[in-house]
Write a structure and sequence with these properties.
This protein is of the alpha+beta class. Helix content is about 30%, strand content about 25%.
Length: about 110
């Protein structure tokens, strides 16, 4: 089993808070996803540069993972640290562009400095 130290960016927490208004079980859905991680493959699709996009089931809409959330995270292998950066509902946003993702990462980095 992969033992990870999990952290959340402030921006991620704001997004979760916003999504909580519509999806009351989002925190439990994220916790369930984290509990199921046994190896790096469980983090989702690699986007390169230790970034991963995971599909998470949304228990509020009963559409499974395909209609659930997408969670973007960064894995720092040296410290086994998983930082949750961005989350969105697939029903509200079809896909996130590479440009948008780059902007989010730059903003996240700038906020932590």
């Amino acid at each position: 089993m992969l033992k990870l130290n999990v952290s959340k960016t402030e921006y991620f927490e704001k997004l979760v808070k916003k999504l909580t208004k519509k999806y009351r079980n989002i925190e439990n859905d994220i916790d369930s996803f984290l509990a199921e991680i046994e190896n790096i493959e469980d983090l989702g699709i690699s986007l390169g540069s230790n970034l991963y996009k995971a599909r998470i089931k949304n228990t509020d809409n009963n559409k499974g993972k395909s209609g659930g959330y997408r969670l973007i995270s960064y894995l720092q292998l040296k410290d086994n640290e998983l930082t949750m950066i961005y989350i969105y509902s697939k029903s509200q946003l079809e896909n996130i562009s590479e440009n948008e993702l780059d902007n989010i990462i730059v903003e996240t980095y700038n906020r932590q400095r």
